[in-house]
Amino acid sequence: MSKRHTNRWSSVWKVFLLDLISSILILAVIQNFFLKGLVFQNPSILYLLLLLVPAYLFFIQDHKVILSQLESHRHSKRHSYKFLALKFCFIGLLFGASDPVIGIENTTIASKEGDIMVCLDLSRSMDVKDIEGISRLEAGRHLLKALVSKLSGQRIGLCIFAQNAMIELPLTRDYDRFKLMVSEVNTDHFSNQGTDVGGALQTAKGTFESEKLNNVILLLTDGEDHEPESNQIYDSIANSNIKLISVAIGSKSGGPLLKPGTASMRLDDAGNLILSKVNLSFVKNLSELTNGVWFHAEERYPATDFILTEINLSSNGYLRDLTFKIERRVYLYTPTFSPCFFLSLCIVSIVIH
Description:
By secondary structure, this protein is of the alpha/beta class.
């Protein structure tokens, strides 16, 4: 090999030595972060680092061609720098995609005053399919999922009821969990049927931690087969900071009731179909007794804008800052740093040329 080629390969080995030292330093830094609790949320992404092996082989073969064709060693040096730039850019992007997490940080979000407790009717009449081919319960699910997607920090809970009432999900800001619970509940939760709205409101009212805040109870019911009214709980809500938003679900024409656990329609003693219709007068009267508001939902995907407006109005427009501790993600640094690093080295290599 000529002296000139020897000098060129010598410059290449110097670049590889620089590469080795840089790689060792990077591994030492990563190891130090591992000791401090660094965790990769998507560690399988890092297996792509194995692609560096064929990349090195390709670089060596390509470099041989360059050495055999070019006279100036600056071209080979620029080729080496570009390879290192691409390598570290590739490594940085993989680290970013693997979602590194280390430590805990505080984050603050703005939250509306007050909490929201949903009272969802699970009596058998909610299975009646009189809303564009789907059941009243399914339409209620659509409404609740659409509504919770538009909330901005409020806590929300779920109270289910028929003749009895129970808290299925305490007040939470975990909206995904709320959607999951709404999807899972059905009319088989209660063996004792009926619609005790008063008992449900009493149970929901007891979940609010502060009576000073402007809390909201969102009632979804068809108003059918309700138990004797309890004016005591209605008066209690009317005289409190709780706003009752009642949603009557079902069509005015109604639909046939089904026998429990079957697809057979229920008949009366005369052999006629037993129809279930939404009881708008009950829901309207309930709103008057509690100083609340009411809406009628008879679409497959009921609109939520009016309900959301009432929820926001109940907060009087005030906001409070809520601080949470969350995992501190650092994936933003490597994708941002790597392209800048790559561009800088490319500029350096061009200047050298």
